[in-house]
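Researcher: We plan to redesign the surface later, but first we want a full-length starting point. Tokens attached.
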């Protein structure tokens, strides 16, 4: 039994007329009648009763129609689904995020636009530190990822910078310098510097550490927080100060103040990263949205 035979039968059953069904299918009436007869011969019983004007379903035809219609609809749905996947209009996109991008507005604005343009696309997201993110991207567990630069291991991938963020100083609200709009790093050299774990963003970690050491900070006064977000909680608790991306200033905590850095040389890029070999169409669609900005 061929799928086209079911499609022909459904067309005739819905129109109850061979000529109208043939026009709807885009074929002539004689071949349509022949194909229906073949289907009836294969089943072993008539499905249609020919009348002077049109046709009517036999009892067997009435029983057969719901299942035939369901099969035809399922086949059309499967065909449309696979075509959508091939065009990158549907299917799945596995996307990674660096842990430090939890408040990265440009990233999530892109995701909002992507979902609006491709509503049938299923997004599978994962948040990791940079080391795991690069490993998952390399091994094909992710189609693409939003990462922070500098990142040494990112050189193995295609990169598109989508935003640049300056680093800012997070101070306890009770700190003597907390009301200043900007603070010079040497003014904070005697403070305990609360750092995010190195694996969160190794190259950015090294950049911050080297800049602070040049500004007179002592490595003995560095203290590690479990995550970049938790470093703010430690600052609010009076454990020290932290240097964080400007996007984290959206964190509302009455125990915190954020200040600009005078003569600031600490900047970090937010980038879209994808593998160089045969990127998925879904990745190219997201990249085209980035290029529209």
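Model: Full-length starting sequence:
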């Amino acid at each position: 039994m061929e799928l086209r035979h079911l499609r022909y039968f459904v067309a005739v059953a819905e129109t109850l007329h061979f000529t109208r069904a043939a026009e709807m299918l885009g074929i002539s009436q004689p071949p349509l009648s022949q194909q229906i007869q073949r289907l009836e011969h294969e089943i072993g019983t008539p499905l249609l009763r020919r009348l002077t004007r049109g046709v009517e379903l036999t009892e067997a035809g009435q029983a057969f129609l719901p299942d035939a219609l369901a099969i035809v609809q399922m086949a059309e749905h499967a065909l449309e689904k696979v075509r959508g996947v091939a065009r990158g209009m549907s299917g799945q996109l596995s996307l990674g995020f660096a842990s430090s991008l939890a408040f990265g507005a440009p990233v999530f604005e892109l995701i909002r636009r992507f979902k609006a343009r491709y509503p049938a696309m299923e997004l599978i997201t994962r948040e990791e530190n940079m080391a795991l993110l690069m490993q998952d991207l390399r091994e094909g567990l992710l189609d693409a990822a939003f990462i922070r630069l500098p990142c040494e291991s990112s050189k193995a991938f295609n990169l598109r910078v989508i935003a640049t963020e300056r680093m800012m100083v997070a101070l306890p609200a009770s700190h003597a310098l907390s009301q200043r709009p900007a603070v010079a790093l040497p003014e904070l050299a005697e403070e305990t510097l609360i750092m995010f774990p190195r694996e969160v963003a190794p190259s950015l970690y090294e950049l911050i550490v080297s800049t602070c050491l040049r500004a007179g900070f002592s490595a003995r006064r560095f203290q590690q927080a479990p995550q970049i977000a938790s470093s703010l909680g430690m600052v609010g608790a009076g454990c020290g100060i932290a240097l964080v991306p400007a996007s984290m200033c959206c964190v509302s905590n009455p125990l915190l103040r954020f200040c600009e850095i005078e003569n600031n040389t600490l900047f970090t890029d937010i980038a879209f990263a994808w593998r160089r070999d045969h990127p998925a169409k879904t990745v190219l669609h997201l990249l085209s949205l980035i290029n529209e900005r």
